[in-house]
Queue: 2 jobs
Job 1
Amino acid sequence: MSDCIFCKIANHEIPTSLVYEDDLVAAFRDMNPQAPVHVLVVPKEHYTNIVDEVPAQTLAAMAHAVKEVARIEGVLESGFRVIANTGEDAGQTVHHLHWHVLGGVHMSEGML
Ligand code: DGP
């Protein structure tokens, strides 16, 4: 999608230091981090969110990327949280599917 910021980042149209990428997925640090580790995993193809008929192969690649990000960022053993804000009530602000990978701190109980 031509005016989508995450399409541009994931497809190298905007220079960003990628934490991880493969043919289907890119991962980069959130510009407004909510934890010591806060990385966004996004597909290179544009999907609005998790209910936008995302192919199983893309979802599998995203899951693989989550593990790679956790390993690279050093939180694979200590634990981390994966969040997919979906739609208005969840506060989704960027309408390109993304999973937040949060870690590096002991998270308090709240909604989750
Ligand atoms: P949400 O749609 O609420 O799940 O969160 C979107 C997140 O994306 C938010 O934490 C800020 C981040 N973000 C928005 N624009 C950019 C950007 O241009 N670069 C980076 N690195 N992060 C962004």
Job 2
Amino acid sequence: MSTTTSLRIAKFGGTSVADFDAMNRSADIVLADPAVRVVVLSASAGITNLLVALAEGVAQEQRDAHLAKIRHIQYAIIDRLSHPHVIREEIDRMLENVSRLSEAAALATSNALTDELVSHGELMSTLLFVEILRERHISAEWFDVRKIMRTNDRFGRAEPDCDTLGALTRSQLQPRLAESLIITQGFIGSEAKGRTTTLGRGGSDYTAALLGEALNVDRIDIWTDVPGIYTTDPRVVPTAHRIDQITFEEAAEMATFGAKVLHPATLLPAVRSDIPVFVGSSKDPSAGGTLVCNKTENPPLFRALALRRKQTLLTLHSLNMLHARGFLAEVFSILARHNISVDLITTSEVNVALTLDTTGSTSAGDGLLSSAMLTELSSLCRVEVEENLSLVALIGNQLSQACGVGKEVFGVLDPFNIRLICYGASSHNLCFLVPGNDAERVVQTLHHSLFE
Ligand code: ADP
Ligand code: ASP
Ligand code: MG
């Protein structure tokens, strides 16, 4: 596809396909822009959480209750269709699969089984959306993204193979675009043997960006329940305001450090291929949104605050570290063997404190701290574990070059314990850890003094 004809991809999150009315509002948005030829959907709101719970292997009574809730959410959409019969049969088949897989999970759980189970959320929402479009006389085709979204077999947090995705997109998806609008699933993929995988919770944004890159689109539209990216989560600080334009670097820092509005990996393909990303609200498209692109005018020193909860801090004490070499190398190789990447880190002569990067947690939200890893670390040093901390990230520009940043930030936080600070590695962020219970007040206090 040449870049001269405008081509866009639009992704709608869970609340944007939560029910019949939400799906119709999302359909209106798609139809209002003829450049949108591919639509990526999440599962209807609430469904993935219920599927994850089923995948954990629950007793029959609870299983039936969860299944009933899933059926209720999807039937509420079917019941508003003019011709519900055929689609009801298809959804019933999906629900039977879900039921069968949940029984299997009750006997033995696995990450592969979890992915197979949770994929049904996106499979069902896309089927329903196609039906809604067809009833509106739009030629729309349901496309199983697993045919092209090739990943490795790290179930629950699979990594896409972009070369294969690119080739398969060109051969299997691109030729279809001229015929009809393509409706496909976010979040799910398949590994070489054909088994279903998932990209991690919130991964539909990432799917949209990956497909957008493979299709060489001129914009990726992310439709959600907020009209853009705000100076901080508007649920935490109601006075937060929208950022009309933001650079890839700033938005990527926000996503990495917990701004749930974008999955942390979303901007990788966008930056790589220089594709602008628009974020808007499907509830109120006329409210506009945020454009993420590679340059903005007058980037401010302080741009936004992000908050990531449930952080685990490991403090490692080694007496051997005094004048010793190789301690950090050993620590890192243990962590690498356990597939864990380090997030924040500070060191002293005999201590190293680090947090684990939770963006790698699986779709089932598994904890990252395994006892095998702790045992291995303990053979090297004394390990202290602190849970329930929150990471607050101040995102901005030229932060490490400016004077007075420390005073401006920490001056207003004197009532709070600051457990760890990371500053200077990136000129785009200043990160620190606070006790989980203080996190919201810290963000509110800081937002008030830096952004209001
Ligand atoms: P979707 O299901 O559409 O992917 P999400 O719930 O994953 O939606 O993301 C949208 C939510 O992200 C918003 O409701 C908001 O509470 C949260 N959020 C966190 N940080 C920000 C921010 N800086 N700007 C806007 N929304 C944010
Ligand atoms: N449905 C998946 C989730 O809830 C993926 C997504 O919504 O992006 O995590
Ligand atoms: Mg999301």
